[in-house]
Design goal:
- With 189 residues, this protein is mainly α.
- Helix 1 packs across helix 4, helix 3 runs parallel beside helix 5 and helix 4 packs antiparallel against helix 5.
- The radius of gyration is 19 Å and the shape is elongated.
- The relative contact order is 0.16.
Length: 189
């Protein structure tokens, strides 16, 4: 959807804007990036709103998968599918109520520089998160379709794959949030 599926278009007129920022700006309404203090909070909220929508859709699809697993009496997959559903719920809560604690990321004029952060890394993390969330949602839907069509021979492996994907997505999202949370520490050094 973002970095993996859409190839960035070269724009010679705006060479100073990172390609990752262009991709995010093109795919997320109200996303302007983090270099300008006035846009920083709005861009964070726009990113989290986009992620929240993907996660909410994943949660709905996973609820259907859980229901189909119960109906199909695939007992060995109930526990792992419950773990996946719990991770989705945890990510939804974190996305909706992200607390950056004592970070000054949203309060200072410049976040880049010698004691700041490289915003390109933040943009690339956000693209990776959204790509992973989209792929995760698609895999859940694929599992749902397989269960509806009674293709039960691959369910355990599929649910195991969802556990791995949910863990990866959770970790990448936490890396992004930790980068923002750690801003004060970096700016004070």
């Amino acid at each position: 959807m973002f970095g993996k599926k859409n190839k960035p278009v070269k724009d010679e007129t705006s060479g100073k804007i990172p390609e990752a920022l262009k991709i995010l700006h093109a795919n997320i309404p109200d996303y302007q990036g983090y270099s300008d203090l006035d846009n920083r909070k709005n861009s964070d909220m726009a990113f989290r709103k986009k992620l929240f929508t993907l996660l909410r859709d994943s949660k709905d699809a996973m609820a259907q998968v859980n229901e189909l697993l119960i109906h199909s009496q695939l007992l060995t997959s109930w526990g792992p599918s419950g773990i996946v559903a719990k991770r989705i719920e945890d990510m939804l809560k974190e996305t909706d109520n992200t607390d950056y604690k004592y970070s000054t990321f949203f309060d200072v004029e410049s976040v880049e520089g010698e004691h700041g952060i490289d915003l390109s890394i933040l943009y690339l993390l956000e693209i990776d998160i959204l790509d992973s969330a989209e792929e995760f949602k698609e895999k859940i839907i694929e599992n749902q379709v397989n269960l509806e069509e009674m293709m039960l021979d691959t369910v355990e492996n599929s649910i195991s794959g969802l556990m791995s994907q949910s863990s990866n997505l959770f970790n990448i999202f936490n890396e992004r949030n930790e980068l923002i949370r750690a801003f004060e520490k970096m700016s004070l050094n």
